[in-house]
C-alpha cells in the first residue's frame, strides 16, 4: 500500500484526496519508483477540472513529473536496478501512469539518470519545462544566435525554461508578463527585455526592443487578443509556436500580418517530441548538457509537503508563482 493522490469528481483543488492504495507490481518494461519529489504542471489542474486533452475516469490519479529511487523493476527492464536515483520524462497519459504518490509506475523508457548535482526537487522540475521549451524553440522554431524571441507567460515554468534556452543558444529573450510585478525577477532570470502586456503597448514595445530585426520566434501558451500585437511585431518569415490556451478569450487570426510577412503559426504539444525517439534523444542531450554546464537550472517557486497537495494546487492556480511548484514526498 502507498499514499496516492486521487480524485473522485471534477472540481477545484479540494477534490484531491490522499488515499491508501495498492500500487501493483511493475509490468513488463515498467519500473516502480519510490517518489521523493513531484513537479506540478498546469496540465494537472486542467485534468482535475475537466479541461485537459485527457478525460479522467474515477477514481483518477494524476501527475506528470517525478524524481526518486527505483524501487522495483519489471520483467525485461535493463539498465536500472533498485536504488538508482532517477527522474521521469512526462508519460503520454497521466491517467495510465500517474505520478502523484509515494510509489508510482512508469515505462522504463521514460527514466533518466539526471546529473547528481541536482536535488530531487530540481530533478522533478526538469523534464516538462525544458522539453516543452526546447521542442518549441529549437526543434521547431530553429532558434539561433541573434534571433529575437518573444516568450509570453514568461514567469511560468516553461517560460523561464525558454529564457534559459534562448540565452544558451545566443538568442535574445523578450519576456512578456501581464503586470510589472515579476519584471525584476524576469531580468534576474536572464530576460534581455521585459514587457508588461496589461500596462504597456505590447506591439510598440516588441518593435522597439527588436528594432530592424523584428521578433523571429514567438513562443506562446496564452492565445487570445495578444495574437494581434504579437503577429504585428514579427519579422518576415517568422514563426509563432502556440503551445497552450491560458487566455479565456477568443483568439483572432491576424490575417494581414500572416499574409504580408509569410508567417508560420504552428501548434505544438510536447507529446510530439516524446513520440519521436530521434528528436527526443537530441532534446535530452541538449538539456543534460545545459544542466551540467549550469546554463539550465530549474527555478523553484515553492516546495510543498505531500500532505499539502491541495494548497499546492491552489498556489498553482493563483498565478502568483515564479517558476516551478514542487511537492516533496
Ligand atoms: N504544449 C505542451 O505540450 C505544453 C507543455 C507544458 C505546458 N504547457 C502549457 O504552458 C503553459 C505554462 O505551463 P506551466 O505549467 O509552466 O504554468 P505555470 O507555471 O502555472 O504558469 C503560470 C503563469 O502563466 C501566466 N498566465 C496564467 N494565466 C494567464 C492568462 N489568462 N493570460 C496570460 N498569462 C497567464 C502567468 O504569468 P504572468 O504572471 O507572468 O503573466 C502565470 O504566472 C500552460 O498553458 C500549459 O498548459 C503546454
Automatic annotation (TrEMBL):
GO molecular function annotation: NADPH binding; oxidoreductase activity, acting on NAD(P)H
Keyword Oxidoreductase in record: yes
CDD domains the record matches: MDR2 (cd08268)
This protein's UniProt keywords: NADP, Oxidoreductase, Plasmid
Domain Enoyl reductase (ER): 11-327
InterPro entries found in the cross-reference section: ADH-like_C, ADH-like_N, ER, GroES-like_sf, NAD(P)-bd_dom_sf
A Pfam entry, by short name: ADH_N
Name under which the protein is recorded: Zinc dependent oxidoreductase-releated quinone oxidoreductase
Source species: Rhizobium meliloti (strain 1021) (Ensifer meliloti)
Amino acid at each position: 500500500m502507498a499514499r496516492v493522490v486521487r480524485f473522485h469528481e471534477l472540481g477545484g483543488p479540494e477534490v484531491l484526496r490522499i488515499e491508501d492504495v495498492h500500487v501493483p507490481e511493475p509490468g513488463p518494461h515498467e519500473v516502480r519508483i519510490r517518489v521523493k519529489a513531484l513537479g506540478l504542471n498546469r496540465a494537472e489542474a486542467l485534468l482535475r477540472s475537466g479541461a485537459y486533452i485527457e478525460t479522467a475516469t474515477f477514481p483518477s490519479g494524476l501527475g506528470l513529473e517525478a524524481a526518486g529511487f527505483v524501487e522495483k523493476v519489471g520483467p525485461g527492464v535493463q539498465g536500472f536496478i533498485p536504488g538508482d536515483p532517477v527522474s521521469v520524462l512526462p508519460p503520454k497519459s497521466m491517467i495510465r501512469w500517474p505520478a502523484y504518490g509515494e510509489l508510482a509506475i512508469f515505462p522504463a523508457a521514460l527514466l533518466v539518470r539526471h546529473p547528481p548535482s541536482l536535488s530531487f526537487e530540481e530533478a522533478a522540475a526538469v523534464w516538462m519545462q525544458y522539453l516543452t521549451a526546447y521542442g518549441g524553440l529549437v526543434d521547431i522554431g530553429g532558434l539561433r544566435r541573434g534571433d529575437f524571441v518573444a516568450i509570453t507567460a514568461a514567469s511560468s515554468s516553461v517560460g523561464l525554461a525558454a529564457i534559459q534556452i534562448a540565452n544558451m543558444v545566443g538568442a535574445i529573450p523578450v519576456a512578456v508578463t501581464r503586470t510589472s510585478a515579476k519584471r525584476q525577477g524576469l531580468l534576474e532570470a536572464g530576460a534581455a527585455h521585459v514587457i508588461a502586456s496589461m500596462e504597456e503597448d505590447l506591439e510598440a514595445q516588441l518593435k522597439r526592443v527588436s528594432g530592424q530585426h523584428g521578433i523571429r520566434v514567438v513562443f506562446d501558451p496564452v492565445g487570445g487578443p495578444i495574437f494581434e500585437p504579437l503577429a504585428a511585431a514579427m519579422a518576415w518569415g517568422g514563426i509563432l509556436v502556440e503551445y497552450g490556451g491560458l487566455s479565456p478569450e477568443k483568439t483572432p487570426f491576424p490575417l494581414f500580418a500572416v499574409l504580408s510577412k509569410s508567417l508560420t503559426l504552428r501548434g505544438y504539444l510536447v507529446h510530439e517530441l516524446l513520440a519521436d525517439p530521434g528528436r527526443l534523444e537530441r532534446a535530452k542531450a541538449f538539456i543534460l548538457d545545459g544542466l551540467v554546464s549550469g546554463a539550465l537550472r530549474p527555478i523553484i517557486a515553492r516546495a510543498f509537503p505531500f500532505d499539502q497537495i491541495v494548497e499546492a494546487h491552489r498556489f498553482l492556480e493563483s498565478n502568483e508563482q515564479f517558476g516551478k511548484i514542487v511537492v516533496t514526498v
